[in-house]
Amino acid sequence: MSEIKTAVKPVVYVVDDDPQACRAVSELVHSFGHQVRMFESPVDFLESVDDTRPGCVVLDIRLPGIDGMEVHQRLLQRDVSLPVIVLTAYADTPMTVRSLRNGAVTVLDKPFRDDELWSNVQEALQRSEKEHHRRRHQTSLECRLKKLAPQDRAVLQLMLQGLKNRSIAKRLDVSLRTVENRRRRVFELMRADSVAQLTRMVVEYEHNLLPTTDSHDSWLSLPFERIAS
Q1: Mutual orientation of helices 150-160 and 195-206 as an angle, nearest 10°?
Q2: Domains of the chain listed by start with CATH number
Q3: Is the CB of residue 109 less than 8 Å from the CB of residue 101?
Q4: 180, CA 20 to 30 Å: which among 91, 100, 165, 207?
């Protein structure tokens, strides 16, 4: 079951020790209606970054004390999911390859074109929104699963294997009424309408997946192709 997205505005963090460059990036992003937070100090940024809302990081490589590569590495170590766009006036192949392997959206050479930076910011924000949607969904599923008692989970496990109520009762050595009550509780607590939906929820939770869009019977509108006799 898909979760309803909350209208939380994303934040674009700009980290650059050059005040003029920092301000130029910030003004560009702000002109498109996004919230911006500027940092000339990488330490201040790492102490202030908020991973509870969507966003991205526009990160210069040459920074005082801690360079941009180390900042990116620390974000990864802390499991901060904000996508990173790397800016540099001193690009080289090893640095570019390392940044991309660490998951950077892109590495842009300074000076960059406004449209190039903006298109990458848009991509980064889309990635962030998707990741936050996935995390919210996982949290919701986990909360529902935790409400299931061990006896309920035993019934759910056998339901997912395709067993009918009588077979479940025999397997668990309980009455048919008991299985029916536990089955009803599973559907209520998981907020599901069918075994197929329960299966999908468990798969999404176990494999850390985004929620699957509910079917709207699109197969019914497929064009009919007559088989030649």
Answers
A1: 110
A2: 11-133 (3.40.50.2300), 147-212 (1.10.10.10)
A3: no
A4: 207
